[in-house]
Write a structure and sequence with these properties.
Blueprint lengths: L1 H22 L1 H6 L8 E6 L6 H4 L7 E6 L14 H13 L4 E7 L3 H8 L1 H4 L3 H7 L3 H10 L5 H21 L2 H8 L4 E7 L6 E5 L4 E4 L2
Parallel strand pairs: 1-2, 1-3, 3-4
Antiparallel strand pairs: 4-5, 5-6
Bound molecules: zinc ion.
Cofactor: Zn(2+)
Keywords: Lyase, Metal-binding, Zinc
GO biological process, one term: carbon utilization
């Protein structure tokens, strides 16, 4: 099995170097010593939701932050996660990105684990601690979606989680100031793995609608 993985890595690196790299050589050369991305993309670590693939992005276009369930620590609640916070700070303050996207997705294991609680997280102490901030939200979804199917409940959790993280973003003064000045936009998305489509949260309709 390990041998299979090793040769897959070898094959992938080779295909990249003679294929995609060669094709995008000029872009790589242009960005060899600097980056100037317009978008900070905060997504889930899930192996099926690669932002560069979904957005067909070139090197240098996206500053990417991925963690389980696309979380942003709440400053108000003193949630400390320097890994995530430093990436956001760097993207906004130094790289001066114009848009921040929080992208959730269908069938999110992190959201499902937060929903099922102890049943899933009993043997995963680090994950349990990490997902603790989603407890309140998962209880709310469980309460409000008591008559819904599991799929509907999962979707609600995934969407509500994206909205919660958008609220957290605004707790950072260096983000909020730029939003107020009209210099920065934040968007909430949900990627559907089954269809390949992306929906964006629309404040006016209070719902997620297809971008295309
Ligand atoms: Zn996920």
């Amino acid at each position: 099995m390990q041998e299979e993985v090793r040769s897959k890595i070898q094959r992938g690196l080779k295909t990249f170097q003679v294929g995609k790299y060669e094709k995008s050589k000029a872009i790589y050369k242009e960005h060899a010593t600097q980056q100037n991305p317009d978008i900070l993309y905060i997504g889930c670590s899930d192996s099926r939701v690669s932002p560069e693939v979904i957005l067909d992005a070139d090197p240098g276009e996206l500053f990417v932050l991925r963690n389980i369930a696309n979380k942003v620590p709440s400053l108000k609640k003193n949630e400390m996660d320097p890994t995530t916070m430093s990436a956001i700070e760097f993207a906004v303050v130094v790289l001066n990105v114009k848009t921040i996207v929080i992208c959730g997705h269908s069938n999110c294991g992190g959201c499902a684990a937060a929903l099922s609680g102890e049943k899933t997280l009993g043997t995963l102490p680090y994950t349990k601690q990490y997902l603790e901030p989603l407890k309140e939200l998962s209880e709310k979804v469980t309460r409000e979606a008591f008559d819904k199917t599991d799929t509907e409940k999962a979707r609600m959790m995934e969407e509500q989680n994206v909205l919660k993280q958008l609220v957290h973003l605004r707790e950072y003064s260096f983000i909020n100031k730029r939003i107020e000045a009209g210099d920065l936009e934040i968007q909430g998305w949900r990627f559907d793995i089954g269809s390949g489509k992306v929906e964006r949260y629309n404040e006016k309709t209070d719902s997620f609608r297809p971008i295309i």
